[in-house]
Amino acid sequence: MYRILLADDDPLMLSGVKQLIDWKKNDCVIAGTAFNGTDALKKIEKLRPDVVICDIAMPGLSGLDVLKKAAAEFPGVVFIMLTNHEDFELAREAMHNRA
User: Fold this and answer.
1) Rounded to an integer, what distance in angstroms lies between the CA atom of residue 56 and that of residue 21?
2) pTM for the model
3) CB–CB of 55/63 below 8 Å?
4) Which among 20, 24, 40, 99 could bridge 79 via Cys, Cβ 3.0 to 4.6 Å?
């Protein structure tokens, strides 16, 4: 079973992602949630998720910062980045950092 960490500063978005996907059917479990980048990085260290679904722009550490820091320390973690920003450069940078 894959362990998933959800990270987004918008509680509505977190709730939506939790409800949108049938996690059990996809052999996944929500291991935890984080409301900012700093909390996300701490939870990655503590929970060791297989997948992190993360907002690109969050307070504290941005999702991009979390991605960069975690990629060095936890190279096996897969990142899926979310954004509602129209600026594609953020998404391009995330993909450049293996999201």
Assistant:
1) 20
2) 0.89
3) yes
4) 99
